[in-house]
Amino acid sequence: xxxxxxxxxxxxxxxxxxxxxxxxxxxxxxxxxxxxxxxxxxxxxxxxxxxxxxxxxxxxxxxxxxxxxxxxxxxxxxxxxxxxxxxxxxxxxxxxxxxxxxxxxxxxxxxxxxxxxxxxxxxxxxxxxxxxxxxxxxxxxxxxxxxxxxxxxxxxxxxxxxxxxxxxxxxxxxxxxxxxxxxxxxxxxxxxxxxxxxxxxxxxxxxxxxxxxxxxxxxxxxxxxxxxxxxxxxxxxxxxxxxxxxxxxxxxxxxxxxxxxxxxxxxxxxxxxxxxxxxxxxxxxxxxxxxxxxxxxxxxxxxxxxxxxxxxxxxxxxxxxxxxxxxxxxxxxxxxxxxxxxxxxxxxxxxxxxxxxxxxxxxxxxxxxxxxxxxxxxxxxxxxxxxxxxxxxxxxxxxxxxxxxxxxxxxxxxxxxxxxxxxxxxxxxxxxxxxxxxxxxxxxxxxxxxxxxxxxxxxxxxxxxxxxxxxxxxxxxxxxxxxxxxxxxxxxxxxxxxxxxxxxxxxxxxxxxxxxxxxxxxxxxxxxxxxxxxxxxxxxxxxxxxxxxxxxxxxxxxxxxxxxxxxxxxxxxxxxxxxxxxxxxxxxxxxxxxxxxxxxxxxxxxxxxxxxxxxxxxxxxxxxxxxxxxxxxxxxxxxxxxxxxxxxxxxxxxxxxxxxxxxxxxxxxxxxxxxxxxxxxxxxxxxxxxxxxxxxxxxxxxxxxxxxxxxxxxxxxxxxxxxxxxxxxxxxxxxxxxxxxxxxxxxxxxxxxxxxxxxxxxxxxxxxxxxxxxxxxxxxxxxxxxx
Length: 787
Hints:
Blueprint lengths: L1 H7 L5 E4 L23 H7 L3 E4 L5 H12 L3 E4 L13 H7 L4 E6 L14 H7 L24 H21 L8 E4 H6 L5 H8 L14 E6 L2 E6 L3 H10 L14 H6 L1 H12 L4 H10 L4 E3 L3 H6 L1 H5 L3 E6 L3 E6 L3 E3 L52 E5 L4 H11 L3 E6 L24 H6 L4 E4 L5 H11 L4 E4 L5 H5 L3 H7 L4 E6 L14 H7 L2 H4 L15 H23 L3 E6 H6 L3 H10 L16 E5 L7 E5 L3 H10 L14 H6 L1 H12 L4 H10 L3 E4 L3 H5 L2 H5 L3 E2 L2 E2 L3 E2 L2 E2 L3 E3 L17 H9 L3 H9 L5
Parallel strand pairs: 1-2, 3-4, 4-5, 12-13, 12-15, 13-14, 15-16, 16-17
Antiparallel strand pairs: 5-25, 6-7, 7-8, 9-10, 11-17, 18-19, 19-20, 21-24, 22-23
Helix pairs in contact: 1-6, 6-22, 15-22
């Protein structure tokens, strides 16, 4: 995924595979369900436009070939296990010595150091290790069913997107004469960094989150329509009143048991039964349209057919054709954003195994270049500074997607000036958990998690004088970020055309639910319904049950981190041309880009994949199994091949299973997976989850407990890696927050400080950047401009 993004942005990417080929060649989906390594939909999607080389770097000839490629490369991205890197010629010391200009980016399940450094993990293990699966599906009534993995590989895709951001940042830094940086990215930490409210519920209020139990708000559920399902979410009373009106003001809706969010949540079963009786006769598209007219957050649970037929995605030409030899023309997700500078394209078919073995020639690596003359207000770079030191971001975002985007820039060293207003306070300052359950605008864990290392300036943008101050600030900024609804920045007088005239090289990133154009551009968009609209809920769920939620509103961080990729690409573009650009990022499109296996299953075979819980197309056993203890004690196990199965049988003290005709080979285990899971569960049920994990990992089998927010806070591996931050905050004291999910060489890898108090930096910013006097600031404050 990391290299797919680079290829689509115009890089010449060489895909290096082992002689047997990348594992995704075996994964599928395949046309007609007939396995063929040259026709795997997932491989095609991830490797379109790349050149392909196969080699064995553990052999002298293979290593020489790899070295010839690295000699001409700017960036190396790999996920070779730490213990195997020396044998593969990819150990850090060797790379630094032989290729001093090379930016090396290493991806691993748990990072390059720490107690779990050498442990194996697949997507199932990663989403359990990072705390996501423990929350999924939300508000479950089935404690006997395991924590659920969302369909496909969104956890690992997120890891790849983070790797792309860091690699592009290091490359941008190298153009300024800084030594080529190496980085390591932990998949577990990438998942833990996007848990929305879950982690801070523990660190702020001591609450251990779970997929089980009652939600604090209702309605928040998926209900069945005449032709599918729809998600309903009403977090504000105005939304509930609009829904009641849409339902025709039934008498039951005015009963005391449905009087407010809390009472509706306490009586959710009755509420959903009554709502379901009304919804069941609606077609989901019709109800979606009517709900949006009344600004009610509803979204259809999109099928793959719905996505391909979507009027919004068609209007924005999101799906693009890809001609793959031997397969034909496929329709695949394109760019998750539009840009005034263009620059995104799928450059051709995915390579056949070893297709370019004979034509890859060494290329001279690019030399570091001087800083662009387009830059202003930037200090010279030094070796230990972070890549974006000297970059300034005017942050007009709120809630989650936008703040998550600008948080990545803060982690990379940029100065983030967050514009806030008491007239329209960020919702995340107003929602629990609050430190010690004491409400306050500076005490909310949600805001304090995603605003670490930023500055806060209060400014009333409903006042023309406030807008003029914002425009003046733009003169001193490199990037402007917003996630208002489509057209809102134009209506405020801060649209791209205005900002471009103020500073021609300004980079503006606008994140919205469905993008700035198209029939759905004004869609009311919340994270959970966005996952339904983007198709994830339709293919996520337990076998035999209906569509399921995804536990975390991951469309928000998906849009945020992909927005940071787009901005890093824009910085490179500005270096080359001096031009700024406007990036129009759609949360819907960003999320759909993470659903390739389901889309291509439909595209190739005319039907979506069936919901199948935690099971996998090519691994078995592959599930999350009950361990000893209460209903929250589970352990994920993923067996990749027959050798690992035999090793697991030894650990279970059941060597006879390895020769059992039902389980000897993968095809046998898949054919008898119900019986297989029963045997594994009988073994795990009486054992501690960590005992199981450690025994299997010693045998080379991927396993990891399903981690709660409390488990993460006390995880010895993550604590040793220094992932969590623990600052002195003026109002909440010391609270654990998720930190940076990567480590850069020759840099201080730390969050700069806690989230700001509301307006704490207003005076300092106005004085230092705009030269305002104390008297002028006092005057503006008295006029309610700085509020």
